[in-house]
Amino acid sequence: MKRPRRSVAISLFVALAVASAFVVAIAGCSESNGRASTSALEGLDASQVKDDNLKTLSVGSDLYPPFVYTDEYGDIVGLDVEILTEALARIGYKPKYQLIDWEKKNELLASGELDCVMGSFSMTGRENEYRWAGPYLASRQVVAVDPQSDIYTLADLEDKVVAVQSTTKPEDILLNRTNENVPQIKELYSFSDRSYLNPALVEGLVDAIAAHESSFLTYEKDYGVTYRILDEPLLEVGLGTAFDINDTRGIDVKLTHAYQEMLADGTMERLVSKYFDDPSPFLNMEGLS
Fold first, then answer.
1. 152 with 182, same domain?
2. Which string of b and e fits 27-46 if b means at least 16 CB within 10 Å?
3. What is the pTM of this model?
4. 252 and which of 35, 61, 127, 133 could share a cystine (Cβ 3.0–4.6 Å)?
5. Do residues 121 and 84 share a domain?
């Protein structure tokens, strides 16, 4: 059966149209997210914040609001930043965050340039590709469309054009049809930057976009955009922090225990509540790996 072609290069017209829409979309990102969150260090014990003896870990991520974004001062902040900073402090580490090309995460881990990567990163389906700490939150991978679209189910995606971020679970699901409810689509656009998804849909360049449900909810809240999210998820996943598969230091195990403590003592619920009105869906991880 013919597989949907993964678009590596889009025509100049498409690229320019998406880029022009994107400029408008990102203009208020730092400001709007800044109102909804605070520094990752807020909420930590003073001894944890001031302890210069904590070992430093290099942590990589791309921009994925509200999990990871930059504030008005250029600092890397967000829900995942707050969660990981707290968890690492509990096991004697402090993070040094840096933004990376997400497609290069594996080579950066293998070379030792990064100790771990995070940022709404799905463990599910990648269990044997990394050493994982987590899951610390639950999430759904979903498809979003324009409210006036005639797409209501996954089956309606047949012969449609869909956009995703490259190297993500939606890309894998739509390319390889690992979800039996996903039909043969016409074409898949894979963007290196997730921020291009909304402009591509708004400009009518694609019929649907797929990503974490939380990212769509955040975009609706911050920019007044309205999506219709399909009831059928592509996948229900657990989010984790990934270390190289050959990393034998055991930090992943200690970090997993710290996440479990934070779930049990209410820290995780407190942090998620700063970003989402209803934290309960993110804390329901029964059956997730």
1. yes
2. eebbebbbebbeebeebbee
3. 0.70
4. 133
5. yes
